[in-house]
Design a protein that fits this description.
Layout lengths: L5 H25 L8 H23 L3 E5 L3 E3 L3 E12 L1 H5 L6 E8 L2 E9 L4 E6 L4 E3 L2 E2 L12 E4 L9 H14 L2 E3 L4 H9 L5 E4 L4 H13 L3 E3 L13 E4 L1 H15 L8
Parallel strand pairs: 1-3, 9-10, 9-11
Antiparallel strand pairs: 1-2, 3-4, 4-5, 5-6, 6-7, 7-8, 11-13, 12-13
Helix pairs in contact: 1-2, 4-7, 5-6
Bound molecules: D-MYO-inositol-1-phosphate (IPD) and calcium ion (CA) (2 copies).
Length: 272
């Protein structure tokens, strides 16, 4: 079997094309040669340009498919069973600070379920991809989730709610519990790459709340095809509806769910 199907090739090519512009813009952020309006504006333009590039490439290859995009929203397609889901720059805060850890995430949703995903870490030139039933890859290599079975050996990643994001109080009991029982908790700053790194076994598990569909769609397929389990934090299947996510290898998934459940039991949101 060829490593990449025609569908994956289309997605990989779109990600690579957008990455050229993003890397150029990242170089400018690093040199602090950003526009007078300030880095935030510069980055959101980079973001928008990357999304337009991806959209144009995908449209050329599959003109009838619809879109769900972080920047441009929804565009209905004639083909109602296939929809591209795009986050052109995941890890915006890293990008803005010159931290070379950000990803381009492109998923294909088919009949309401994530079917194929590509996550490109442009700074490291690592292309993660998977298509349902075909396994998961990083560049030329097949990837699998890690085999570590105990939380005490595990390195987990998460997202820490920040200014403008809900859930700061609820985050504390969970992270505290994992601090006590794991080898370490990391906040790397890109949900898409967190999932790609669980899939490739660098990290053992990942959990986060308040995410959007485009943060997780590609990563869900890649983790599953790498042998991992992905649910929401309740153990259910609402991750694509924007909410929470918990992804890990099969041994650790259940342990992470129950650790969070115990830690958050009886949590009461403090009065505003
Ligand atoms: C963000 C990143 C981050 C996660 C945030 C997301 P963005 O996406 O994935 O890791 O913690 O909640 O919104 O804004 O950089 O595309
Ligand atoms: Ca994102
Ligand atoms: Ca983004």
């Amino acid at each position: 079997m060829a490593l990449r199907s025609p569908l994956i090739n289309v997605m990989v090519d779109a990600a690579k094309k957008a990455a050229r512009g993003l890397l150029r813009d990242f170089g400018e952020v690093e040199q602090l040669q950003v526009s007078l309006k300030g880095p935030a504006d510069f980055v959101s333009n980079a973001d928008r340009r990357a999304e337009q590039t991806i959209m144009a490439e995908l449209k050329k290859a599959r003109p009838r498919f619809g879109f769900l995009m972080e920047e441009q929203g929804v565009e209905e397609g004639e083909d109602t069973s296939n929809r591209w889901i795009i986050d052109p720059l995941d890890g915006t805060t890293n990008f803005l600070h010159g931290i070379p850890h950000f990803g381009i995430s492109i998923a294909l949703e088919r009949d309401g379920h994530p079917y194929a995903g590509v996550i490109y870490d442009a700074a490291r030139d690592e292309m993660f991809f998977a298509e349902k039933g075909q396994g998961a890859y990083m560049n030329e290599r097949r990837i699998r989730v890690a085999g570590r079975e105990k939380l005490e050996d595990a390195v987990l990643t998460t997202g820490i709610p920040h200014r403008g994001r809900p859930g700061r109080d609820l985050f504390i009991p969970g992270v505290r519990a994992f601090m006590e029982v794991t080898a370490g908790v990391r906040r790397l700053g890109s949900a898409a790459l967190d999932l790609a790194w669980v899939a490739s076994g660098r990290c053992d598990g990942y959990w986060e709340r308040s995410l959007k569909t485009w943060d997780v769609a590609a990563g869900i397929v890649i983790v599953r095809e790498a042998g991992g389990i992905v649910t929401d934090i309740e153990g259910k299947d609402s991750m694509m509806d924007g909410g929470s996510i918990l992804a890990a290898n099969p041994s650790l998934h259940a342990a992470m769910l129950s650790t969070l459940k115990t830690a958050e039991k009886g949590f009461v949101e403090p009065a505003a």
